[in-house]
Amino acid sequence: MTDNSRQTESVYWDRDPAPEAFPALAAGVPVLGICRGFQEMNVAFGGTLWQRVREQPGLSVHHEDESQPLDVQYGPAHEVRLIDGGLLRGLQDGERLMVNSLHHQGIRALAPGARIEAVAPDGLIEAFSLPAARRFAVAVQWHPEWKAMDNSFSRALFAAFGSAARERAAA
Predict the structure, then answer these.
(1) Is residue 6 domain-resident?
(2) Residues facing residue 33 across a β-bridge
(3) Mapped to the 3 state alphabet, what secondary structure does the chain carry?
(4) Domain containing 115: what range?
(5) Per the domain annotation, does 23 fall within a domain?
(6) Where residue 4 falls among pLDDT bands split at 50, 70, 90?
(7) Is residue 25 situated within a structural domain?
(8) How would residue 67 be classed by pLDDT, with cut points 50, 70 and 90?
């Protein structure tokens, strides 16, 4: 579940993600939600979103400046704190991580049963997992795919996802 070029047509914007999410997780398919996929996973499992998150009091850091070059737009924008005991916290030694911030929506209420994996300094949830899933089910608000090979955390995240996919394929 990700924000990708095939979903630029508005026909995809309002579709319900639940018909895809529920069977995938029930079948033990590893899931990694990125950006819009993060938002869709939260809504599919019963959470809610802020619209225009940067307009919410105290949450103004979460947006892109489209006048900037892509390297700046997708560059590190703010820190997140990885939650102790979480899946993401286990992917690196430190509890702090710099991420990019390009989103217009953000989690208002986390889906029931989801576990917070990372939060921004202003308290906005930046990552969550679904502990009840049979395999890897994680969503992040930022774009770890941007220059992933230059970012040790992104490499570890994609390695964990790939490992879960290989485990499922072998099962």
Answers:
(1) no
(2) 139
(3) CECCHHHCCHHHCCCCCHHHHHHHHHCCCCEEEECHHHHHHHHHCCCEEECCHHHCCCCCCCCCCCCCCHHHHCCCCEEEEECCCCCCHHHCCCCEEEECCCCCCEEEECCCCCEEEEECCCCCEEEEECCCCCCCEEEECCCCCCCHHHCHHHHHHHHHHHHHHHHHHHC
(4) 31-170
(5) no
(6) very low
(7) no
(8) confident
Nearest of 148, 131, 130 to residue 139 by alpha carbon:
130
Query: CA-CA distance, 146 to 168, in Å (whole number)?
Result: 26
Q: How many domains does the chain have?
A: 1
Six-digit token pair at 118?
């990372």
Radius of gyration for the alpha carbons in the chain, expressed in angstroms and rounded: 15
CATH number at residue 114: 3.40.50.880
pTM here is 0.86
Please check whether residue 39 lies inside any domain of the structure.
yes
List active site positions. 35, 143, 145
> What's the rounded Cα separation, in Å, for the pair 22 and 170?
21
Helix axes 18-26, 36-44, angle to 10 degrees: 80
